[in-house]
Specification:
about 190 residues, alpha+beta
Amino acid sequence: MSQLLKTLPKKLMTAKPMMHKTSMDLNMATLTKCAPEILQAQSLVEVVLALGSNYQAEKYLPIARESLAALGEIRLSTAFQNPDFTATLEQPKPDYTNQCVHLALNTPMSLQQLQQTFKALEGNCNRRRQTKPNQVRRVTMDIDILMIKLATIENSLSKKLIFKSISDWIVMANRYPFKAHEIVGIEELTAFTD
């Protein structure tokens, strides 16, 4: 496991991984980085997500995981409690509980559809976006897309289309470089074997 694991404050809980047939072998140095706005209409079959909560995480993380499992097969990294990196001595903030999720979708969806689905899921977890400046935010659930795999059509001659993932992961440029807990989560997910 990475040296970054030592930089994480404390392990909060261990999630039991659900095994999936898809391999996540990847080399972080060679991954393509792309702006999400360029990929909005692209069809996706797999995503790696970062979940975060700084308010009632023990309640909202299971709700989010259950909702994600309804979209496809999931694998979970360990959940870690981390300090809010925007906290200061003058303005302390609650710690976040963070976890990475590999989601292999049952049905391909566009990036735009997934983003809308995740915003609705955050809303189902009572996420309220604060607008007052300098207000300490209570984040019940935050779902960020870290990496995606695009869908390709394997058999276009038959009446039934077979979707298969392109082998390379694409990193969302707006999320890179990854935070320490995200790197550890991704490394955990890649270490799972079938």
